[in-house]
Amino acid sequence: MNKGLRLDTRDRALAFCESQLALLSSLEEDGFRPGLAPDELKVAIGRRGEVIKANSGRKRFTAAHILGMQRIPLRIAYIHRDWLQLHGGPPGGIARGQ
Question: What is the Cα–Cα distance from 85 to 23, expressed in whole angstroms?
Answer without folding.
Answer: 38
